Amino acid sequence: MSAATTFTNTASTSANTGATPLLEIKGIVAGYGRVEVLHQISLTVNQGEIVSLIGGNGAGKSTTLMCISGILALRGGEIHFAQQRIDGTRADKLVARGLVQVPEGRRIFPRMTVLENLMMGAYCRNDRAGIAADLEKVYALFDILKLRSTQLGGTLSGGEQQMLAIGRAIMSKPQLLMMDEPSMGIAPLLVTKIFEAVRALNQEGLTILLVEQNARAALRLSHRGYVLETGRVVLADESKRLLVDPRVLESYLGE
Ligand SMILES: Nc1ncnc2c1ncn2[C@@H]1O[C@H](COP(=O)(O)OP(=O)(O)O)[C@@H](O)[C@H]1O
Ligand SMILES: [Mg+2]
To answer: What is the pLDDT of residues 107-127, one digit of tens each?
Structure first.
């Protein structure tokens, strides 16, 4: 199976015409204990794009994000972000540089209020005006968070907690937002709302790497996609082409 080697940014709303790489993963190898899970994965996310990473359970999607976030050490390969090599850099330093992940399963702080949760995202910032402006941006995106701002995070529904997790990530002022299965376990109506918010964030210029098992939804939203199978990229193409690719249809878009 040959992966496409040339990519174009299909974003009609993006100001970018020539592709500028923001994140470049080059042949990364990683694993747990004696088990190698990622076998030389390479992928690129260009400035202004939504790129989806799809694949079945256990394919290595979350592991890939953990490597990018600096949570899991590489055994080989390199990761470059904004033209600088970042593998080996501590996770908190990467957040401060704008590489922000919305983790799988949301992981909000249940005993803190919605507002406190959001402000946790801004802990490494000290630009008060910017923080206030971003809080308004989050509230504009998800009005429910404003309504529930004094409520404890743990009292929100699953979908609302996902919105809170995204809001918290936005409060970190991301340059690249990585999301791990934002639709997992969430009511369909809220999934639609969350995906609309992701699109809106991208249209404002935010670059997004979206990990999803819900391949159809992810490919409809993204410009390009990569298909991961047992720790290898087996397909890479524009999302609209992956949506009609028989191999993707058979394995990931079956009804
Ligand atoms: N903490 C861990 N320790 C050992 N093996 C793990 C750990 N996390 C994930 N794995 C294994 O790594 C593989 C890839 O997992 P993961 O990256 O979570 O896949 P995905 O997110 O695509 O479902 C799976 O075989 C999984 O069992
Ligand atoms: Mg996962």
So the answer is: 899 999 999 999 999 988 899
pTM of the model: 0.91
Nearest C-alpha to atom 3 of ligand 1 is from which residue?
Answer: 32
Q: Which residues pair with 52 in a beta bridge?
A: 210, 225
Question: What are the helix (H) ranges across the chain?
Answer: 61-68, 91-96, 114-120, 128-141, 143-147, 158-170, 188-203, 215-221, 239-242, 246-252
| Tens-place pLDDT, residues 5-36 | 333 434 433 444 578 999 999 999 999 999 99
Ligand 2 centroid distance, CA of 229 (Å):
13
Domain architecture of the chain: domains with CATH:
21-252 (3.40.50.300)
Q: Is 63 in the pocket of ligand 1 (CB under 6 A)?
A: yes
Contacts of 20 by beta carbon, 8 Å cutoff, 6+ apart: 46, 47
